[in-house]
Amino acid sequence: MRVTIEALGAAGDGIARDEAGRPLFIPFALPGEVVEAEPGAARGDGRTAVLQAVETPSPDRVAPPCPHFGTCGGCAVQHLADSAVAAWKAAHIAEALSRAGFRDVPVEAAKPSPPNSRRRADFAVRRGPGGITIGFHARGSSEPFDMAVCFVVEPRILALVEPLRALFATLPALHRAGSAMVNLLETGPDLWLRTDAPLAPKDRTNLAAFAAAQGIPRIAWSREGTRDTPEVAAQEGPVMTSLSGVPVSPAPGAFLQATPQGEAAIIAAVLHGLPRRMPGKPRIVELHAGLGTLSFPLSARGRVEAYEGAAEAVSALAAAAGRAGARVKATRRDLVRQPLLPAELNGVAALVLDPPFAGAAEQAAILARSSIPRVIYVSCNPAALSRDLAAFARAPGWRVEAAVSVDQFLWSSQVEAVVTLARGP
């Protein structure tokens, strides 16, 4: 079928129309291109299609740098120029705001994080007749492919792929499926392994030798497919990362922003969203604070009341704040089951809400009805952002003062946003 691509969808697919006017979702096709495509399976109200040939290429089409592009499920738009990716992601946030009820809001398009800057990676591992396969999931599959190169992750993480392959080959605890998550900290790679069978004494010996040989301060382990708290299987030294200059000791697998550049962009946008003038000793409330990525920079502007549901994150944040003398009070609270109520927000100068991917629908509705003068919403999911901010659009007096897109997921369809909501004209 010969079609013209009308737009780029949220997943990075080119969108065209078939002869009946139904949408065709064509991966690797770009807006304005005339392409040949083979229609396939149903998807929503349309069909997927396989790109066969590009007859008229877009001026924004570029050569993908990675030989795995198209096979790897991580990157969706390596074939699109960086400036066009930034505009597309900013438009995605503007569309989410419009669906919420805040129309015609200009969205600042941030620069993407540079190649090879991602400091977190979660590799899938499989044992098969041909040996160990380790890498990211293949496109449209739950199975990994063998990685040779990657232009997204930090080289020090990529350098662990082949040693990890050799390690897993020696572990009886890996029957078929496992994974290896790496957080790159100031003290080195922090490794969390998951296998589908328990660790034997020999496995633990192998892990200790691997940690010593690779300069890995800590290796944690848990059973694949469970939500068990990881146990430390080998420890060579202290584990530490720095958040705005404050040393923090994270738990295995702790959440960090994907890149240092993305973290800096989010912090800058959040601080810019604070009121220019705040009362003496202002109260700043932060929800879903994690390890304190935002808590510590916010504490330079006021007293921070940081709420977080994960016990290990609260402990790490509280200990770090105590050592640094930071104006941060960390409190454990399940914000999904027990959101903050309006009476608890009296006298708060600003609130920062940084929920997980699913968003914070109940908390957003409460905040929209409260007397709080300013909310800064940090979102990694435009769909949740749109749903949650609709509560503010329905409530009287709220406006979007600023919106910034943050692209720390290079060449993927993912995008983050920092949206400042304020009361008044």
TrEMBL record:
One Gene Ontology BP term is:
rRNA base methylation
Q: Which GO terms describe its molecular function?
A: 4 iron, 4 sulfur cluster binding; rRNA (uridine-C5-)-methyltransferase activity
Q: Which family does it belong to?
A: Belongs to the class I-like SAM-binding methyltransferase superfamily. RNA M5U methyltransferase family.
Q: Which residues form the signal peptide?
A: none
What SUPFAM superfamilies would the database entry show? Nucleic acid-binding proteins (SSF50249), S-adenosyl-L-methionine-dependent methyltransferases (SSF53335)
> Has keyword Kinase?
no
The UniProt record lists the TRAM domain at 1-55
Protein name from the UniProt record: 23S rRNA (Uracil1939-C5)-methyltransferase
Q: Which residues bind S-adenosyl-L-methionine?
A: Q257, E308, D354
Organism annotation: Muricoccus roseus
